[in-house]
Amino acid sequence: MDLNFTPEEEAFRAEVRAFLAEKLPKRLSDKVANGKHLSKDDMQEWHAILNQRGWLANHWPEEYGGPGWTAVEKFIFEHECALENAPRIVPFGVNMLGPVLIKYGNEAQKRYWLPRILDGSDWWCQGYSEPGAGSDLAAVKTTAVRGVDEQGEHYIVNGQKTWTTLGQHANMIFCLVRTDREAKKQEGISFLLIDMNTPGVEVRPIVLLDGEHEVNEVFFTDVRVPVENLVGQENRGWTCAKYLLTYERTNIAGVGFSVAGLERLKRIAFEQTRNGKPLLDDPAFAARLARVEIDLENMKTTNLRVIAAVAGGGVPGAESSMLKIRGTEIRQEINALARRAMGVYARPFSQDMLDAAYDGPQFGPDFAAAASAQYFNNRKLSIFGGSNEIQKNIISKMILGL
Amino acid sequence: MNFEHTEERRMLADSLNRFIAEQYAFETRDRIAASNEGYSKAMWQQFAELGVIGALLREEDGGFGGGGFDIAVVFEALGRGLVIEPFLGSAVLAAEAISAAGSAEQKARLASIADGSAIAGFAHDEPATHYELARVQTRAERGGDGWVLNGAKAVVAQGEAADWFVVSARSGGAVDDEAGISLFLVPKDVAGVQVIGIPTIDGGRVAELRFNHVQLDAGALLGEEGQGYAVLERAVGRGVLALCAESLGAMEAAKAATLDYLRTRKQFGVPIGSFQALQHRMADLLLEIEQARSAVINAAAALDGERIVRERALSAAKASIGRIGTLVAEECIQLHGGIGMTWELPLAHYAKRLVMIDHQLGDEDHHLARYIALGRRLAA
């Protein structure tokens, strides 16, 4: 039993820290630290910096341009990035589609698409959820009908995807589509890559409760997709879908985000006062803060135990469901406490206050507007990636055997 | 990073688990718990021969372990078996106080603790303490050739079985001061010591101690006069870890029993474990127990570390265990329904033990407040 990282891992951590100190633009980390909007250019800039170093596709095998990191090294990298307020890696191309192509794509697909993910030629988004297929993902209804015309074999796609994160920036979308309406639910699904500039694709924004345009609806009307864009076998797309979801669950506990959030929360609670004393000394507030801090201390170790099991040859299975549930609960509680710490100043809000260039009047403490926006925005954490209730179903079935 | 126990510890845990499964089955435990002695002398000897007591003591104290993870491994197994023999009071709390502060002559007593031939009691809590470590009202005054003790101690584990006690008493300072607390070794049979025994709700026996002009010789003082607080903190810290690990073992046993019940009990023609309302409660318990295990690991790893970091990890663990242990107890009874309310079901006794661990060496609220206070010192 040893909770310390090995000297090699500590050296790796130092290497990551040195890299972040040198290469992470302060302009970007300030935005993240202060809860300001990141533009498409901001995100692409960070991707390019990571790619330059060979660290963007850190889940990919070395032969495809990955760094060949162990599970522990991936954890250290993600943790240090979160602590230094680096922008998140936009996961759809590099962390989701990439591994699917590497496992199920043909040679031509790998050769064409993978380098374009790395160099930013394509911005991918995810076409999974539909209005009638949320937690019940296999209920997708978007159809793809195979046909032939003078330009060759193709699919004609009709239907609608939703909750398409950052789809407004994307030129490509990977979709689960129904290619066999007669087959049983999971068996008639295929995994298709669709160019969003094809006629018949329409993206409409969904504005979230915090006023943010983060997600979209994507409509498909007689969209022609070349048959070369099928990944894996026709009607076997569910296999790809499930495989991708296991990658969606990496770093699912978000411990680094919670540690960074807790540090900020403590700063806020030190600066804000009640009865002339720091909020940190208010017994009710301090107790709630201590509870979530203790939960996070325990979660750090739980997270490392799961990672150590993976590193030791174990399989990261349903344990990640536990990390997802409690990790997101902790993040949401930290968000809730930051909002509460703002008192009456939790309310004044307009979207432009979250622009780095905002120079209008200041209402209340620095982080006030961002605290409320993050609180509402992060209600999503317990809903996406398989709602926390779905995670409990998984635990019941896979771990408890109920 | 490595979360596997050493080979030696795994072997120790295996042999202890096997012994408990074979020799300490629930019926045996139930009989011992209700006995006039409140523990089994024969079992105590067997545990000593198995090396279980020795594993809790350091080499220089006559044992062959004594590390944080030794304590964790042993007490998790003891918790799984609901063992009530006096490991905590004798081999952890009293032994650590003697190890930390004892003279060579006093330390000689550790050998009799290690081989099980003597049982030491740890008499610190008082009727008005409510877990505050520095709140000591029992008085020690110089008199005769040594000291005179007056006061009372509360809920001393196996107080009747103990041959002698480590007793905290105030020789100076105000009632809540850390300074001015002295420790003494007090034989049970000395004049003026009254021991009033009583069973507990979770098995075994405890005693109230009264000291009425108890005359002690000068050699009874353990450590420096007035400097007992740091010794108490060290001993209680190890005791906190032991209780946390014991609770974890009891949680695992309660979880296994409840899962078994959910799979076999049928209502409406199906196992009740097929109902989502119960599945989600069980999934929550699993998650909480894994967090509790992490808390125990954190505490064990911090045991020999720097003071504030160590004490914070211990308080974080005890606060976690207090909350989670109570939750596991309440949920497991609820998931069992009526049968969970009965004496005949072992689960009910695990539930009682889990709840009562929160009443030893500081409950959830106490350790949460302590964690906050220690954090301020860290920031200052």
Features:
heterodimer, A: 402 residues, alpha+beta, four-stranded mixed sheet, four-stranded antiparallel sheet, 12 helices, 10 strands, 45% helix, B: 380 residues, 13 helices, 53% helix, globular
Description:
The complex is a heterodimer of chains A (402) and B (380). Chain A is α+β, with helices and mostly antiparallel strands. Chain A is built from twelve helices and ten strands. In chain A, the strands form three sheets. Chain A has a four-stranded mixed beta sheet with strand order 1-4-5-8. In chain A, strands 2-3-7-6 form a four-stranded antiparallel beta sheet, with no helix packed on it. In chain A, a hairpin with a 2-residue loop joins strand 9 and strand 10 (277-278). The two termini of chain A are 32 Å apart. In chain A, 40% of the residues are buried. Chain B is of the alpha+beta class. Helices cover 53% and strands 16% of the residues of chain B. Chain B is built from 13 helices and ten strands. Chain B has helices at 7-23, 26-33, 41-50, 52-56, 68-80, 87-101, 104-107, 109-114, 228-264, 276-302, 307-336, 346-357, 364-379, and strands spanning 120-123, 139-143, 146-157, 164-170, 181-187, 193-199, 205-216, 221-222, 266-267, 270-271. In chain B, the strands form three sheets. Chain B has a four-stranded mixed beta sheet. In chain B, helix 5 packs antiparallel against helix 10 (276-302), helix 9 packs antiparallel against helix 12 and helix 11 packs antiparallel against helix 12. Chain B is globular and about 75 Å long. The chains are: A alpha+beta (402), B alpha+beta (380). The interface between A and B is large, with 39 and 41 residues.
Structure, briefly:
By secondary structure, chain A is α+β, with helices and mostly antiparallel strands.
Principal-axis shape of chain A: globular
Radius of gyration of chain A (CA) equals 22 Å
Low-confidence regions of chain A: none
List SSEs of chain A in N-to-C order: HHHHHHEEEEEEEEHHEEHHHH
Which sheet architecture does the biggest sheet of chain B show? Answer: 4 strands, mixed
* Series of secondary-structure elements of chain B, N-terminal to C-terminal: HHHHHHHHEEEEEEEEHEEHHHH
By secondary-structure content and strand pairing, the structural class of chain B works out as alpha+beta
Percent range for β-strand residues of chain B: 15-25%
In angstroms, what separates the terminal alpha carbons of chain B? 31 Å
| Fraction in beta strands of chain A | 15-25%
